[in-house]
């Protein structure tokens, strides 16, 4: 891979996640404190990405990578998405806003897989070359949070408009990416089962894998409380520059990704997953009790736990799936897990989190965040206990460590 291609792919990753980080983190604050949407409505809005994650594989698998060059599809989706996201920023009632935002996420979510596949096509050794390029995506997310938080734009529509401008810029830039034509698939017919990874259902016959799938699905329900409501929570507590401070989570994500091999050697797959689940329960407990002024350190600790929460659960889970599935089912298994967790699990979590937030809305305004955060903390803890009791991993820790190099991708 030439330096020119490396630079273009790095820019692609930076802008790809800058756009997402610009609007997604702070949207709940704008919808709640300015437009006065209910908690359920905010949760459903955050869940549009989950709905799109369920639908987008059909687009990628049946249309995108069969008829057009990837860079042209990316350009089209990002430019169109930018226009739609700007329109979303002008809506002030829930129905129209939700409909327009859903259209935008249907444009955006397929680009996550497409940007990865385009990058892989340019690499001789993706395992070595992709991580330092993908980490620019996390940096882009951090820069977006710092920019919006520093300017104090969280309670306005400006973050969506910044994301829209970034999306259009990215769409134009995609035309400068290396030409990546579709790969001929002669004699291969796309099916719903193959696209959603349903071929991997046969793996559910193994007890440990079935428990892993169920546990991953269940824990994704309390997870969505953080993504949908953490920024609104911090702003209602009058935490200054909340969006910027939330980027500490992505910074810790990079650090914990780098040290994951060391933990794999000492803990193995099961304990890595349990630590990840425990981190989610601990994070929510910190948020529940950190509402007191003398315990504000708990809020920062909860944010910094993001690296453990994400890397030890999601990344470890991806490695576990890769090791358990036969080589001919690995892609299907990864697609199935993504469908179950990022799609169905996160969607249910978005709706449920909004319902809980509404239950603890205060008549005088604001919310009883102590009670709210105890709900996902208890949920994550219950899943943790059940997972610890019933899940059995036959993976050897040294083998698992070998599956993850020190420069593994950051998500």
Describe the structure.
With 411 residues, this protein is mainly α. It is 77% helix and 0% strand. The protein contains 17 helices and no strands. The chain has helices at 3-23, 27-34, 39-46, 48-67, 70-89, 94-121, 126-151, 158-174, 192-196, 207-236, 242-246, 248-289, 297-304, 306-324, 330-359, 369-390, 397-402. α2 (27-34) packs across α10 (207-236) and α5 (70-89) packs antiparallel against α6 (94-121). It starts with a helix and ends in a 9-residue tail after the last helix.
Number of domains: 2
* Number of DSSP-assigned strands: 0
Number of helical segments with 4 or more residues: 17
CATH C-level class of the largest domain is Mainly Alpha
Shape: globular
Descriptive keywords:
411 residues; mainly alpha; Growth Hormone, Chain: A; 77% helix
Outline of the structure:
By secondary structure, the protein is mainly alpha-helical. The chain has 2 domains: 1-183, MFS general substrate transporter like domains (Growth Hormone, Chain: A, Up-down Bundle), CATH 1.20.1250.20; 194-411, Growth Hormone, Chain: A (Up-down Bundle), CATH 1.20.1250.20.
Please describe the topology of this protein:
Blueprint: H1 3-23, H2 27-34, H3 39-46, H4 48-67, H5 70-89, H6 94-121, H7 126-151, H8 158-174, H9 192-196, H10 207-236, H11 242-246, H12 248-289, H13 297-304, H14 306-324, H15 330-359, H16 369-390, H17 397-402
Helix pairs in contact: 1-6, 1-7, 1-8, 2-3, 2-10, 3-15, 4-6, 4-15, 5-6, 5-8, 7-12, 10-15, 10-16, 12-13, 12-14, 12-16, 14-15, 15-16
């Amino acid at each position: 891979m030439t330096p020119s291609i490396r630079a273009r792919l790095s820019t692609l990753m930076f802008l790809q996640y800058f756009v997402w980080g610009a609007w997604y983190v702070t949207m709940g604050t704008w919808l709640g404190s300015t437009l006065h949407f209910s908690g359920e409505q905010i949760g459903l809005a955050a869940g549009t990405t989950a709905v799109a994650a369920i639908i987008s594989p059909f687009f990628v698998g049946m249309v995108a990578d069969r008829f057009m060059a990837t860079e042209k599809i990316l350009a089209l989706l990002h430019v169109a998405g930018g226009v739609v996201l700007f329109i979303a920023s002008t809506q002030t009632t829930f129905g129209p806003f939700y409909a327009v935002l859903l259209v935008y996420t249907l444009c955006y979510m397929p680009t996550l897989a497409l940007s990865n596949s385009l990058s892989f096509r340019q690499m001789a050794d993706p395992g070595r070359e992709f991580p330092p390029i993908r980490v620019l995506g996390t940096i882009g997310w951090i820069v977006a949070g710092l920019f919006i938080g520093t300017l104090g734009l969280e309670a306005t529509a400006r973050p969506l408009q910044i994301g829209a401008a970034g999306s259009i810029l990215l769409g134009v830039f995609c035309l400068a990416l290396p030409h990546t034509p579709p790969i001929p698939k002669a004699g291969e017919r796309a099916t719903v089962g193959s696209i959603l990874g349903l071929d991997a259902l046969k793996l559910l016959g193994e007890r440990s894998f079935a428990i892993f799938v169920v546990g991953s699905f269940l824990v994704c329900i309390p997870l969505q409380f953080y993504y949908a409501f953490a920024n609104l929570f911090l702003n209602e507590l009058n935490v200054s520059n909340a969006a910027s401070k939330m980027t500490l989570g992505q910074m810790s994500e990079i650090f914990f990704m780098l040290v994951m091999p060391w933990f794999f050697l000492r803990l193995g797959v099961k304990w890595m997953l349990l630590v990840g689940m425990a981190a989610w329960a601990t994070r929510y407990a910190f948020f529940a009790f950190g509402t007191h002024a003398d315990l504000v350190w708990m809020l920062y600790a909860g944010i910094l736990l993001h690296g453990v929460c994400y890397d030890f659960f999601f990344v470890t889970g991806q490695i576990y799936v890769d090791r358990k599935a036969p080589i001919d089912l690995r892609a299907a298994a990864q697609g199935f897990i993504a469908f179950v967790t990022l799609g169905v699990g996160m969607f249910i979590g978005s709706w449920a989190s909004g319902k809980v937030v509404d239950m603890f809305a205060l008549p005088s305004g604001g919310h009883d965040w102590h009670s709210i955060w105890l709900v996902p903390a208890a949920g994550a803890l219950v899943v943790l206990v059940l997972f610890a009791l019933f899940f059995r991993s036959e993976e050897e820790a040294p083998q698992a460590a070998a599956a993850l190099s020190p420069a593994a991708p950051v998500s």
